[in-house]
């Protein structure tokens, strides 16, 4: 599938979400418009069969159903197929919508600033197609941990973005027993193969990182963690929770702090996140995690002594 085909499907989904219900004739008026030169430089009309193929892919990949009202021949997004709780899907669709708006309104391009993900996006289409079709990928990968380059076969279970990096997660011939996490910015080469793999029906990507913050994963039991948040940071953590398990334990308006509870594994990404908040975050429990944060900060402060 050509890159332009993915872009066309994204345009179609974004347009129907914004403009729907919409007829095929109305879609074609937008599709053949002169402002759509980047996706349709020859201004060819969108044929019914092509539209149906795109709709089938959108439903399979995004899990979003586009239906047609037979009485009016109008296409619309089925509200029941879009989950407001699916943050990844919402983020992806919002990104698609902005990209398509920018292609239509080029004069606004410099006035809308998106977070840049420097590398890895060029591999997403190949990975998505391999996930869809159930084929392994041949990947040449450079590991920062081992300072080593290796070529492996990976079964792409799912993809994840965190802190400006894309990751592909799945078992490989180098780590055959369990899924392993590979950062796409460290991929030197990625090619599709004809080797099939079976995606286990019992595997749940959401559950894989459910008790984690960030990209680290372990089988350790999650801790009950308590964090005191001070000053203005209370507003930020209320509007954008640190983790889905977050709940309020105590709010002291007189002393201007709140205590929040979490159920998480205390992995390195979480340590970095808490340490980055300086004196506005304080781990209260468990005691061993509090000491771990303190030790991390002490080692960092020695650099400035």
Concise overview:
This protein has 305 residues and is an alpha+beta fold. The chain has nine helices and 13 strands.
Question: Secondary-structure blueprint of this entry?
Answer:
Elements: H1 3-19, E1 22-23, H2 24-31, H3 48-62, E2 66-69, E3 74-77, H4 87-104, H5 124-133, E4 135-143, E5 148-154, E6 158-162, E7 165-170, E8 180-183, E9 187-196, H6 205-208, E10 223-230, H7 233-239, E11 247-252, E12 257-264, H8 268-276, E13 281-285, H9 287-301
Antiparallel strand pairs: 1-3, 2-3, 4-5, 4-9, 6-7, 7-8, 10-12, 10-13, 11-12
Helix pairs in contact: 1-3, 1-4
**Secondary structure: number of strands:** 13
Helical amount among residues, as a percent range?
25-40%
**What is the overall shape?**
globular
Computed CA radius of gyration, to the nearest angstrom = 23 Å
Strand order of the largest sheet: 11-12-10-13
Cα(first) to Cα(last) distance is 56 Å
Mean pLDDT: 84
Which regions have little confidence, pLDDT < 50, spanning 5+ residues?
none
| Helical stretch tally | 9
Strand proportion = 25-35%
The biggest beta sheet is recorded as: 4 strands, antiparallel
Structural class: alpha+beta
What pattern of helices and strands is seen along the backbone? Answer: HEHHEEHHEEEEEEHEHEEHEH
């Amino acid at each position: 599938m050509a890159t332009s085909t993915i872009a066309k499907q994204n345009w179609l989904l974004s347009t129907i979400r914004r403009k729907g219900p919409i007829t095929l004739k109305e879609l074609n008026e937008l599709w053949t418009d002169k402002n759509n030169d980047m996706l349709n430089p020859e201004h060819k009309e969108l044929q019914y069969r092509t539209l149906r193929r795109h709709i089938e892919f959108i439903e399979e990949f995004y899990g979003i159903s586009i239906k047609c009202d037979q009485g009016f021949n109008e296409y619309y997004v089925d509200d029941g197929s879009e989950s407001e709780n699916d943050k990844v899907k919402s983020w992806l669709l919002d990104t698609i919508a902005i990209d398509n708006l920018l292609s239509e309104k080029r004069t606004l391009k410099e006035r809308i600033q998106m977070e840049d993900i420097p590398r890895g996006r060029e591999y997403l289409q190949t990975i998505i197609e391999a996930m869809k079709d159930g084929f392994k990928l041949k990947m040449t990968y450079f590991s920062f941990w081992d300072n080593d380059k290796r070529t492996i076969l990976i079964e792409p279970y799912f993809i994840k973005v965190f802190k400006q990096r894309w990751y592909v997660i799945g078992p490989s011939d180098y780590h055959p027993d369990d899924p392993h996490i590979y950062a796409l910015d460290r991929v030197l080469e990625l090619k599709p193969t004809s080797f099939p793999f079976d995606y286990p029906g019992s595997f749940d990507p959401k559950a894989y990182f459910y008790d984690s913050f960030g990209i680290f994963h372990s089988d350790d039991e999650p801790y009950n963690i308590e964090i005191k948040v001070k000053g203005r940071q209370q507003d930020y953590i209320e509007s954008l929770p640190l983790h889905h398990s977050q709940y309020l334990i105590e709010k002291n308006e007189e002393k201007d702090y709140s205590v929040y509870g979490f159920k998480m594994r205390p992995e390195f990404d979480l340590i970095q996140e808490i340490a980055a908040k300086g004196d506005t975050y304080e781990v209260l429990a468990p005691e061993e995690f509090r000491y771990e944060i303190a030790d991390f900060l002490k080692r960092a402060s020695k650099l400035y002594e």
